Structures are given as structure tokens and as C-alpha cells.
Amino acid sequence: QVQLVEFGGGLVQAGGFLRLSCAASGLTLSRYRMHWYRQAPGKERELVATIRSGGYTYYVDSVKGRFTISRDNAKNTLYLQMNSLKPEDTAMYYCAAGLLSTVSDWGQGTLVTVSS
């Protein structure tokens, strides 16, 4: 059974940083396309970043240059380093896994709150 468990959310001031982690079990993370999504109150879920099995990365324009997605294959863990945080980054952040373009598994989410 696949489990994705996120850690690292919290309250931070604007301009600060956080690192989110997603510990995976039941799958070999390096073989999957891994994503970070977020959902702010009253808004639709948004794809924030993706890392493919070959290492290719994608970022939504609003986080380019501030966020970095990475993975540690030995630890089977996905990360999202978030720097220069803005109040508009406030959201529930979800780790997700899938093969090709389909997401098949989701974590429970971790809340990030950025105060101005």
C-alpha cells in the first residue's frame, strides 16, 4: 500500500523559508513522477512543482527562482525547499505520485502559513 506523508509545514514570516518533506512507502520514489500541489482557501488545487524520474523539473511561474523540488532516492523522500516566502504562498501543500501524467497517490497535506 502506498503512503505519502508530508512534514515541515508551519507559520513563517514573509521573506522566510521552509523545507517540506514527503516520506514515501510502498513505492520506489525514483521511478515515479513526483509532484507538489497546493490549495489555498477558496481556490482550486494548483500544481507547484514536478520532478520526473529522469530528473527533469517543472515549476509554476509564481514560484520559479524561489522553490526547489528535489528527492533523496536512498531515503525515498521528496523535498520542496521554499525560500523568499510570500503571503500568497499560504496553502495546504500536498505531495503526489504518479506514472506519466496521471496522479495515483496523494499525501494528507501539510499547512504552510506565511504572515505579512
Strands, count: 11
Instruction: Kindly estimate the percentage of residues that lie in beta strands according to DSSP.
Output: over 45%
- From the alpha-carbon coordinates, what is the Rg to the nearest angstrom? 13 Å
Estimated helix fraction: under 10%
- Our measurement of the CA-to-CA distance between the termini, rounded to an integer number of angstroms, reads 40 Å
Q: Give the class from helix and strand content and strand pairing.
A: mainly beta
Q: Give the low-confidence spans.
A: none
Q: How would a textbook summarize the main sheet?
A: 7 strands, mixed
- What's the number of helices? 0
Give the CA-based shape: globular
Topology pattern, helix = H, strand = E: EEEEEEEEEEE
Mean pLDDT across every amino acid position: 96
Task: Give me a quick take on this structure.
This protein has 116 residues and is an all-beta fold. The chain contains no helices and 11 strands.
Task: Give structural attributes.
116 residues; mainly beta; seven-stranded mixed sheet; four-stranded antiparallel sheet
Task: Please tell me about this protein's structure.
- The chain is mainly β and 116 residues long.
- The protein is built from no helices and eleven strands.
- It has strands at 3-7, 10-13, 18-25, 33-39, 46-51, 57-59, 67-72, 77-82, 91-99, 102-106, 110-115.
- The strands form two sheets. Strands 2, 4, 5, 6, 9, 10 and 11 form a seven-stranded mixed beta sheet that branches. Strands 1-3-8-7 form a four-stranded antiparallel beta sheet, with no helix packed on it.
- A hairpin with a 2-residue loop joins strand 9 (91-99) and strand 10.
- The relative contact order is 0.32.
- The mean pLDDT is 96.
